[in-house]
Amino acid sequence: MASNSNNPAIIAWGSGEDGQLGIGNNEEKEWACIIKSLQSYSVRSVVAGSRNSLAICDDGKRGTLGHPPETKTENIPSQVKALANVNIVQAAIGGWHCLAVDDQGRAYAWGGNEYGQCGEEPERKDDTGRPLRRDIVIPQRCAPKLVVRQLVMVFWEACQFIFAEATMA
């Protein structure tokens, strides 16, 4: 196994039934294997959910993998076209959806929205896979202007909680 010393290898293993491992197929892997399609990129971070994953690269290209509902399943990393001109600095993933924050503190969400996890009312499903900018509403009495810097998702029993770390703008 070899990798470019400037770009450490990104490895994956586990369930690949939706292509979320990024190895070019939908197979399960018991042992770690290199995601060859990311070897030429400098990957800043990787986040994974049960049905999808996302890599944030230093060159501005982002890759999503897996099966967000109502979208084409990807089994090799591909750029999120709607975020082509956005510098994503941090991301979080649920089972069927993705959240991301850009370098200006703007939040984006896409994927399954059955329970409102993309910031829309559940009746208004946003299962198109197209990232939409979401305004995180914070009461004025809490702070005059906050900029989101980090998103964290926590799963507890049947509930999902999203926490946003913010700083004063």
UniProtKB/TrEMBL annotation:
Signal peptide: none annotated. Coiled coil: none annotated. Pfam families: RCC1, RCC1_2. Keywords: Repeat. The keyword Cell membrane does not apply. It comes from the Eukaryota. RCC repeats lie at residues 8-59, 52-104. InterPro entries: RCC1/BLIP-II, Reg_chr_condens, Ub_ligase/GEF_domain. This is Uncharacterized protein. It comes from Fagus sylvatica (Beechnut). The lineage of its organism: Eukaryota, Viridiplantae, Streptophyta, Embryophyta, Tracheophyta.
